């Protein structure tokens, strides 16, 4: 939440299963914002993120915006993305705009990116390039909750479970 107020982006690091995605969705729900998730895989292309320009049935150029056009963007497992796709995120994170087909397009206001990454000890992960890591105003390590914290979470969710 601090990152949103500070008009910045946040990097969450933790092993799978510590509720990084759930926290991101909860933030969007709390402020009633549009939320989109991009699963960053080794074959993710920049156009999968930004969108593209294509020729429609009327033989006219048409813009199809990608999932980056949202208020809260979850870039899940960012450090698994190929370098070309990481590069596509740079302009959005720094300038809150993207360029598609030579046209500069502003992102919605507010725009906040939440990136997750697995620790480097997990297979298939690479460190984020410094130029990309510098776009985040904070990095938060997310760990497993203690037994007491898990019990409290269950207690709070008990009414929803019944």
TrEMBL record:
CDD domains, sorted:
AAA
Q: Which Pfam families match?
A: AAA_3
Q: InterPro entries from the xrefs? A: AAA+_ATPase, ATPase_AAA-3, CbbQ/NirQ/NorQ/GpvN, P-loop_NTPase
Question: What's one GO MF term for it?
Answer: ATP binding
Q: Which residues form the AAA+ ATPase domain?
A: 6-146
Note the Gene3D superfamilies from the entry. P-loop containing nucleotide triphosphate hydrolases
- This chain belongs to which protein, by name? ATPase associated with various cellular activities AAA_3
To which species is this protein native?
mine drainage metagenome
């Amino acid at each position: 939440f601090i990152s949103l107020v500070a008009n910045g982006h946040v990097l969450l690091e933790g092993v799978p299963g510590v509720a990084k995605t759930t926290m991101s969705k909860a933030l969007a729900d709390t402020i009633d914002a549009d939320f989109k998730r991009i699963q960053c895989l080794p074959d993710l292309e920049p156009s999968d993120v930004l969108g593209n320009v294509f020729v429609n049935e009327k033989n006219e150029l048409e813009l199809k915006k990608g999932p980056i056009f949202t208020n809260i963007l979850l870039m899940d497992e960012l450090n698994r993305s190929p370098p070309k796709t990481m590069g596509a995120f740079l302009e959005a994170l720094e300038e809150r705009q993207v360029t598609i087909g030579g046209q500069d397009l502003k992102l919605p206001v507010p725009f906040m990116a939440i990136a997750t990454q697995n620790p480097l000890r997990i297979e298939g992960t690479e460190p984020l390039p410094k130029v990309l890591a510098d776009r985040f105003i904070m990095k938060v390590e997310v760990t497993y909750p203690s037994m007491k914290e898990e019990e409290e979470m269950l207690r709070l969710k008990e009414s929803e479970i019944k």
